[in-house]
């Protein structure tokens, strides 16, 4: 919290102003006291994916939490650009309802689309400097392509909410600011069997969970 100070350049302030200043000081003190009240820290879920990355591989891997409670989508836009004849990045994680911008940074036109069932879209033909966007209304893995340049491929993993984390190269993950409640933890990675586990998150502190990559669904 920033400290606030009031100064008069010279002389004495009028009596009315002193009264108002004293009242304002009391109000600021009261607000400051509110900031001193202890607040329980937000809970988090973290751990390690044992055996990740697998030897000779290291593609994207994601851990996320699912709950029956509906959570609003993050306000931040995500960007998957077309640059040098490829999608950048080639893999993206988005929450349901989050906007993904797809600007064309190439000197040639592109036509970005997806034929993935329940996630179909077609942004049409657009030239360099143009920006189009797409929003997904349900979870799932979306295959993205360009109808003009068949070698251009990308994927977007749509998860239920912002409660997700990409797995680090050392296998660790951390999902901060998790409200207390019951969740299904899910793990996804290329070439691995999906993993899911029911967990309970307390009001504060960190829930630690390690699991092995490739473990079968529970």
- What is the end-to-end distance? 46 Å
- Secondary-structure element string: HEEEEEEEEEEEEEEEEEE
The CATH superfamily title of the largest domain: Immunoglobulins
Q: What would the principal axes of the Cα set say about the shape?
A: globular
Q: Can you give the helix content as a percent range? A: under 10%
Structural class: mainly beta
List segments where confidence is low: pLDDT < 50 over at least 5 consecutive residues. Answer: 1-41
What's the short version?
The protein is mainly β. Helices cover 10% and strands 43% of the residues. The protein folds into two domains: 88 residues, Immunoglobulin-like (Sandwich), CATH 2.60.40; 88 residues, Sandwich (Immunoglobulin-like), CATH 2.60.40.
How does this structure look, described?
With 218 residues, this protein is mainly β. Helices cover 10% and strands 43% of the residues. The chain contains 1 helix and 18 strands. The strands form 5 sheets. Strands 6-12-11-8-9 form a 5-stranded mixed β-sheet, with no helix packed on it. Strands 1, 14, 17 and 18 form a 4-stranded mixed β-sheet that branches. The longest helix has 21 residues. The two termini are 46 Å apart. The relative contact order is 0.24. The N terminus is likely disordered.
SSE diagram, text form:
Layout: H1 15-35, E1 43-50, E2 61-66, E3 78-79, E4 81-83, E5 86-88, E6 91-95, E7 99-103, E8 110-114, E9 121-126, E10 131-135, E11 140-146, E12 153-159, E13 164-166, E14 172-178, E15 181-189, E16 195-201, E17 206-208, E18 211-212
Parallel strand pairs: 1-17, 1-18, 3-7, 6-12
Antiparallel strand pairs: 1-14, 2-13, 2-15, 4-5, 7-10, 8-9, 8-11, 11-12, 15-16
């Amino acid at each position: 919290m920033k400290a606030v100070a009031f100064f008069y350049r010279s002389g004495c302030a009028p009596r009315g102003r002193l009264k108002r200043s004293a009242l304002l000081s009391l109000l600021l003190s009261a607000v400051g006291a509110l900031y001193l009240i202890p607040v329980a820290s937000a809970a988090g879920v973290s751990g390690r994916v044992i055996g990740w990355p697998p030897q000779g591989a290291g593609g994207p891997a994601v851990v996320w939490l699912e709950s029956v409670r509906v959570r609003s989508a993050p306000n931040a836009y995500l960007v998957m650009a077309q640059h040098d004849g490829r999608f950048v990045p080639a893999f993206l994680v988005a929450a349901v309802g989050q906007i993904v911008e797809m600007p064309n940074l190439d000197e040639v036109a592109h036509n970005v689309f997806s034929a993935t069932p329940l996630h179909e879209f077609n942004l049409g033909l657009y030239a360099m400097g143009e920006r189009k966007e797409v929003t997904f209304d349900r979870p799932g893995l979306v295959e993205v392509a360009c109808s003009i340049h068949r070698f251009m491929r990308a994927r977007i993993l749509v998860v239920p909410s912002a409660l997700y984390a990409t797995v680090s190269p050392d296998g660790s993950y951390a999902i901060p600011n998790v409200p207390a409640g019951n969740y299904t933890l899910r793990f996804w990675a290329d070439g691995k069997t999906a993993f899911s586990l029911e967990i309970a998150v307390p009001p504060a502190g960190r829930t630690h969970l390690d699991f092995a990559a490739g473990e079968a669904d529970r």
